[in-house]
Every structure is written in C-alpha cells, then in structure tokens.
Amino acid sequence: MTDKKTISIYDSKSCEYASLTKVSRPSKQLNEFMNEINHGGTVLDLGCGPGIASAFMKKNGFNVVATDASAEMIKIARIENGINALHQSFEDISWTNHFDGIWAHFSLLHASKKMFPIHLEALYKALKPNGVFTIGMKIGKGEKRDNIGRFYSYYSEDQLLKYLKKSGFKIDNIKYGEDVGLDGKLASWIIIRSHA
User: Fold this and answer.
1) CB environment 128-152: b (16+ within 10 A), e (fewer)
2) pLDDT (tens digit per residue) in 16-26
3) Which of 97, 140, 164, 184 is deepest in the core (most CB within 10 A)?
C-alpha cells in the first residue's frame, strides 16, 4: 500500500521538489522515450510530481495521463504546468491495452518489494502491444527510509531485469548515473527502457 509518511513529506516539500526538478528542456532519457512513440500517442506519467515531464510530453503532441499520490504535487502540476493530473496511487492502475508508453521516472522506488511485481504486472497490462516502458530506480539493497523519512525500495540491475522480464517486458536500453536528491544526498540510479 501507499506509504502515507512518504506522501506527507512530498506534500510538505512540494515547492522545494518542484524547484529542484525544474528544467528548461527534456532529459536525454525523456527524449529517447518520446522518440520511441508515435506522435499523438497516449502516455502515462506515473508519479508525475509537479508535472514537468508531462508538460514536455504534452508540448510534443502526446496525449498525457498523469498521476500522483501527493495532492500538493498535483496542485503544482495543474497550476504551474497545465497538467490535469489525477490523484492516484500505484494501486489504482487499472487500464488495459491503453497506453503507447509509460514513464515511471523514479516513482516506483517508493513501492514496497512485496507490491513492486504486482505494479509491474498492472503496468504491462496497461500497455498496448509493443508499448514503451521506461523506469528509473535508485540502485542499492533492501527497504529503508532516507534521512527526511521517505520510504524506498532498492534493487540491483540484475534484480530489476529479472522482475521486468518476468512481467513480460523486453529490455531495450539501460543507463546509469548519479544525482543529488531532495534529501541532499548523492545517489546512484538506473534507467531502463523496455517494451511490452
């Protein structure tokens, strides 16, 4: 289930997070994601936060469905970025054969290890055949809270690939990097692009 403490932290730090993640152009990974999908396709921005990626996708001609579990993030997405985001958690994923692409950019790392494979299966079902799925996660081990109280599940590359393949995804591309997050700590990440 959705971790209420994590959501409350995002609610209270929504403006700070929006400032931290604000960029003037799409990331390389987002551009690659958009390039894999036909113009005008329907995409899901899962855990859209302040709606920055959604705004880029909308501007590039995609039909965007954006969701987030934080009511304050949704307010920013609507007011600042013109994204009519839905107030939903991962448990609310119920589409079937609906999306040409799903962008899960550092959102599913807040799902428990117990629920993670269930969410992946729901997302696979929500994609159209050959639909594109991009997931960003932090690399590590176990489940724990960061120093501002957010819940995280950490995985190795091998573990993530195993879960994705078991859910039916075919791996296309893997990227690595590291960034300083909302907690002020440098963290290693992995972004995997795959398709149904």
Assistant:
1) eeebbbbbbbbbbeeeeebeeebbb
2) 888 878 888 99
3) 164
